[in-house]
Automatic annotation (TrEMBL):
Its cofactor is [4Fe-4S] cluster. Residues 12-232 form the Radical SAM core domain. It comes from Acetoanaerobium pronyense. Keywords: 4Fe-4S, Iron, Iron-sulfur, Metal-binding, S-adenosyl-L-methionine. It holds the Pfam family Radical_SAM. The keyword Kinase does not apply. The keyword Iron applies. PANTHER family: FEMO COFACTOR BIOSYNTHESIS PROTEIN NIFB-RELATED, UPF0026 PROTEIN SLR1464. This is Wyosine [tRNA(Phe)-imidazoG37] synthetase (Radical SAM superfamily). Signal peptide: none annotated.
Length: 236
């Protein structure tokens, strides 16, 4: 049985995107309380093998032939980099002259082996969801010894040497990073990581939206503040 799963291809900025999950079940180094995939039974940050790579690559080949995408977006059930075939998967897609976008929470991007693999991708998305160590531990429940400081530093290290497009996705969470002090901290994080592109999103999962979703008005205000800060910084 193949272990990859796919979303229906869609158009984004005129380009056809094929979204793929390369994990058979959730494997992540975090266990976020608002994770749309559910709890993390396997909290890991080292690579592990998964069965049926050949079958899965054959199926991917068929999907590429059928849909002819401009970009394959690796958006997995957790941290895609822990699949020990991730480099082969990325190189397989690139061999078809198709661009690759990789979503990671960004924590392990500072490690040489993951940095090298991510460098093959045309676009990498890293994530920030909190602004304090306390909230990092409480909301994201990472592997023991992980810190928010390291999380930011790892993305900074990665982006300093990355030649592709680094996208920072910031999630605004009611009661945690939607106050004025947090907005200032988020601006500092943006300046430290210095992404090529900033995405500001909010919790949209139905189950968590009620408790952790910010209002349209507040979200618009925060988005403008952060996007302006990001553009100002880039234009310097
Ligand atoms: S980093 Fe993403 S996949 Fe991992 S637990 Fe958090 S929300 Fe889920």
């Amino acid at each position: 049985m193949e272990c990859f799963t796919y979303k229906e291809p869609y158009i984004e900025d005129g380009k056809k995107i094929l979204e793929i999950n390369v994990l058979p079940e959730k494997y992540c180094n975090f266990d976020c309380i608002f994770c749309p995939i559910g709890r993390s039974p396997h909290k890991i940050d080292t690579q592990k093998p998964f069965p049926n790579l050949d079958l899965s690559l054959n199926e991917l080949d068929e999907m590429i032939k059928a849909h002819n995408p401009d970009l394959v977006f690796i958006n997995s059930k957790g941290e895609a980099l822990v699949n020990d075939s991730i480099e082969d998967i990325i190189r397989f897609i690139k061999s078809k002259n198709i661009k690759v976008r990789l979503l990671t929470n960004g924590y392990i991007l500072g490690k040489k082996e993951y940095m090298d693999i991510s460098n093959i991708c045309d676009e990498v998305i890293g994530e920030i969801k909190v602004t304090s160590e306390k909230d990092f531990q409480k909301l994201q429940r990472p592997i023991e010894s992980y810190t928010l400081k390291e999380h930011i530093e790892n993305m900074n290290l990665f982006n300093k040497q990355y030649k592709g497009t680094f996208i920072l996705e910031i999630t605004i969470i009611k009661g945690y990073n939607d106050d004025d002090e947090s907005i200032e901290k988020l601006k500092e994080i943006i300046q430290t990581i210095s992404p090529d592109k900033l995405l500001v999103v909010r919790i949209d999962d139905e189950i968590f939206q009620k408790k952790l979703g910010v209002s349209d008005e507040r979200f618009e205000y925060i988005s403008n503040e952060l996007l302006t800060c990001s553009n100002d910084y880039k234009n310097r």
